[in-house]
Amino acid sequence: MCRVVCPGSFDPVTNGHLDVIGRMSQLFDEVVVAVGKNAGKNGLFSYGERMDMLREVTSHLSNVKVEVFDGLLVDFCLERGIRAIVKGLRAVGDFDYELQMSQMNHRLADVETLFVATNPLYSFLSSSLIKEVCALGGDVAGLVPDAVLERLIERLRK
Ligand code: PNS
Fold first, then answer.
1. Mutation choice for ligand 1 from 32, 33, 38, 41, CB with most ligand atoms inside 8 A
2. How close is the Cα of 50 to the center of ligand 1, in Å?
3. What burial class does residue 123 get, using C-beta atoms within 10 Å of its C-beta: 0-12 exposed, 13-18 middle, 19+ buried?
4. Which residues contact residue 98 at a Cβ distance below 8 angstroms, ignoring those fewer than 6 apart?
5. Looking at residue 43, what is its pLDDT?
6. Average pLDDT of the chain to the nearest whole number
7. pLDDT tens digits, 45-86
8. What phi, psi does 29 have (nearest 5°)?
9. Does 106 qualify as catalytic in the annotation?
10. Helices (H), ranges, the chain
């Protein structure tokens, strides 16, 4: 069985994330979406809320699981016997840091990183930009799943 991890902050999940997760679910037996806890970052949504949203929007993908992790991503992978991480690359700007992390993760635990080109429809998206635009009254419909849109409006505008 070939399993991969799709890690991220997912605060919240966007259609760009969902596109990568869906494509990977067609290539691999199981995709574990891993929500990373980051002590330094104050999120808009709690980790529980992020996982609930991810579970809701991936419920049609039977081989996708959602989990949360704390600590090193490679430890999360090793504990589950998973040998590869998948990351979406939106543009060259993503590449330097992602390359650095992939080389560190390989050095730490022989865990490979597979880079997937993001769908160009969503290559300008980030969770941070979505939150900023939505908070200022901009229309982000079509850029996040509908269930996420409702929660964003509720959280940011009420
Ligand atoms: O969506 P993000 O914010 O780009 O996700 C970043 C994440 C959670 C994937 C990354 O910060 C991560 O892997 N964190 C776990 C801690 C870790 O393993 N750090 C060393 C990386 S080489």
1. 38
2. 16
3. middle
4. 87, 89, 113, 115
5. 96
6. 97
7. 999 999 999 999 999 999 999 999 999 999 999 999 999 999
8. -65, -40
9. no
10. 15-27, 47-57, 73-79, 92-109, 127-135, 146-157
Instruction: Please give the domain boundaries of the chain with CATH numbers for all domains.
Output: 3-123 (3.40.50.620)
List pocket residues of ligand 1, CB cut-off 6 Å.
7-9, 36, 72-73, 101, 104-105
3-state secondary structure of 66: strand
Give 3-state DSSP helix, strand, coil % of the chain, rounded to 5: 45, 20, 35
Taking the whole predicted model, whether its pTM rises above 0.70 is answered as yes
pLDDT digits (tens, 9 = 90+) for 131-147: 999 999 999 999 999 99
DSSP state of 113: E
CA angle, residues 13, 36, 140, in degrees to nearest 5: 15
pLDDT at 138: 97
Work out the number of other CB atoms within 10 angstroms of the CB of residue 90: 17
- Cis geometry, peptide bond prior to residue 12 (ω within 30 degrees of 0): yes
CA distance 155 to 158: 6
